[in-house]
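G., before I forget:
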Amino acid sequence: MKTVLVTGANRGLGFALATGFLEAGWRVIAVAREMPELPQTDQLQVELCDLTDGQAIQALAARLQGAPIDVLINNAAMYDSPPNDETITTDFTQICHLFQVNTIAPKVLADALVGNLHAGVDKLVVTMSSGMGTYAEFDEYHAKHWAYSASKTAVNYAMVSFAKMNPSFTSVLINPGWMQTAIGGDDAPLQPKESAEAIIDLITNHKNKLPNARMVDYTGKHVDF
Ligand SMILES: NC(=O)c1ccc[n+]([C@@H]2O[C@H](COP(=O)([O-])OP(=O)(O)OC[C@H]3O[C@@H](n4cnc5c(N)ncnc54)[C@H](OP(=O)(O)O)[C@@H]3O)[C@@H](O)[C@H]2O)c1
């Protein structure tokens, strides 16, 4: 049985990914700040962890020591506005938390789980990025939301660095699309379940569409950084 670790598994895309992988027969390590309402099966292991806390990330890795992980999905993230509200935060501490969750935690967690990933078969690290983190799509809206956008640009760099330092793994950035979640808001055209199903299909059936140190969208199409 393959094992996937998903961060932010209690809602939004992370919840849909965890649910979908459980349905597909995978073992799921669901990482969240609070107990997710996922189906309680033997396949599910819940690990509580706040990704703004470096010691909590290292403690999580210590609890998982020796457990093979085939796929790590860095999914958790924060936005710089409340849901359906264009008020952009200017609070210094909140912006620091945003960079901790969106940029630093994915790289630190991947580094901490290198042994687990070596013990797995797929050796795949997937990090959810965004078109807002690319120079190719840069516009005024992205500039206004500079903190979120820059945190995604920086996580692209961080996970390309992870790829460089770990040549036996594939480290891919995925833009999951504009989804109806707390981050995406109510006007988004895509449900998180649709994006999750496409991403699970890419991971399980089309791994050749997942390039190392590059970004694709949830259908596997190349995205320029
Ligand atoms: N929605 C979109 O349109 C869109 C577009 C492009 C990219 N993305 C990316 O897709 C991914 C999933 O986003 P989403 O739309 O599903 O967002 P979401 O519904 O807001 O979910 C965010 C998840 O991140 C978790 N999280 C936030 N801060 C955390 C912390 N300190 N420690 C642990 N977990 C934390 C949340 O947990 P709590 O419940 O504990 O806060 C939640 O589970 C993100 O990387 C996002 O940037 C989304």
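The chain is about 40% helix and 15% strand. The chain has a mean pLDDT of 98.

More on Monday.
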